[in-house]
Amino acid sequence: MARRNDMEGPHHREVVLEIEHIKVIRKRAKTNLRFCRDCNRTTDFISVAGAADLFSTSPLEVFEFTQSNVCHFQVGSEQTILLCLPDLLTAMGKRMKGTVKLIGESNL
Question: Of 7, 19, 21, 29, which residue is most buried, by most CB within 10 angstroms?
């Protein structure tokens, strides 16, 4: 039987365990199908107020987020700002370092 050298002392390691919890939240919102020039396809557009309701935040916070992340938008009737929802979700996913997507959308 091999004898351990007592001069070495015990071997200890520290292990770091990271557990990621996935939370699925489903909410509904009214959108408008429009052609997004930046995406070069027809996508869902949502108003700033609609996005704020969807993400449980204020319209100002949504607007500031879209401006700082250069999200795609259009100006609708009555000068309403409409946000390209797929682009908004992509920006949110990058900020959150996770996945935020529409159910049924495979390319977000």
Answer: 29
3-state secondary structure of 108: coil
Other C-beta atoms closer than 10 Å to the C-beta of 108 total 14
The edge-to-edge listing of strands for the beta sheet with 81-84 is 32-36, 41-47, 81-84, 73-75
Distance CA 42, CA 2 (A): 72
